[in-house]
Write a structure and sequence with these properties.
By secondary structure, the protein is an alpha+beta fold. The protein has three domains: 116 residues, no CATH class; 91 residues; 180 residues, 2-Layer Sandwich (Nucleotidyltransferase, domain 5), CATH 3.30.420. Helices cover 42% and strands 15% of the residues. It is built from 13 helices and eleven strands. The strands form four sheets. It has a five-stranded mixed sheet, sandwiched between helices. Strands 1-2 form a two-stranded antiparallel sheet. The mean pLDDT is 90. The protein binds iron/sulfur cluster.
Amino acid sequence: MREATGLAPLAAERIDDYLQLAHYWRMLEACGRAPAETPARGFIIGSDDLPDLDPSGHVLVWYDLDTPLFATFSRRQGKAKRTALERYDFEFGIRHEIATVAASRTGAADDPDPVVQPIFTDECDYCPWYDYCLGVAGDTASAHIKSGRLSIREWRALDQLGVSTLHELAALDTTDATFRDAYMPEVAHLGARAMDRLVAAVRRAGMVVRGEVLERQTEGPIDLPAAEVEVDFDIEDAEGRVYLWGALVRDGGADPVYVPTVSWGPLDEEAERRLAQRFLDWLRDLIARAGSQGRTVRVYHYSAHEISNLKRILGPGASGDLDGVFVDLLPVMQQHYFAVSGHGLKKVAPVFDFQWRDEEPSGLLSQLWYLEAISEDEPAASAARTRILAYNEDDVRATAAIRDGLRHQAP
Ligand code: SF4
């Protein structure tokens, strides 16, 4: 075996690998097989191709399990480094205790209290126990703050200070010196960010209580570039390829026209490139025809996703001549509005009185519709294509509705 010096594993990003190895190490110890004479360590075989390090291209990385590598909260020091084995023992220990107490509960009045109450994290959004935990947790604040979520440590610190429910969080006075003196040492590992994070969570809690999605954080008219011909555009992708470039063309007072550039055939790199080029050619042609009549064109999209895909597919400079034509509406929204759960198009457009025709409008679901749309089951494929086109058309109509709203009736 050859060792490559001067290289080290990225510890913080690989905590899951470390914990897995720590788990195996403790299992070896439990059955008397852990080598006593060597430090606790294990290796991970990488999937990168690194022929500079070994002709085979394959390398493995040793992970030290009893070296303090991971910064964790420490009541005494604010932050302390712990080993992978210490992290593992803590995580395993608390789960063992939770399970032991839960297993001992029989429904009798003198049952021990559960060791933990649900605290909602990003993981919960995909958890099959979500509804159950929601029922158990009641009005807990962590169930309602889905954007700018606080960490478990922060929620626990609040709980210890009597702030657990949504309404308690909404009513919290973060300027209160007594509160701050008690709270800040508990989240010292976050430094100055701790209070900013909490202030934002309190603001969001208030919005949830009042049923608000957006809160204006600027005043006066919102300056948005305008043109005589305005185009909203939005892409749909699946399996890493863009198969639909949808555009809504609004030419003066005429009814807007939806123009999709789409492929339902197999898309390899070259086919995806041709489709994107077809869209860009169509757009340039529209701009040229308007220009020949002395009229201006602007093209609006919501997030950098559209332009970054255009550059990915056609090259960084492919649409450089149109840089002043494209307008990203998302940064405008972020500048002027504070959002209770993000500035996503689906969250924001309803505030501007826009509703999708589809009952389940979702970019993720549209990727499943796409699989149906390219299947050979013709009636189902045709229905899926119609659904995708209607969904994409509504996406661009939503962008147009936000644009109109920002100009004329900013909430
Ligand atoms: S929803 Fe799932 S992940 Fe979240 S607290 Fe409940 S069991 Fe844990």
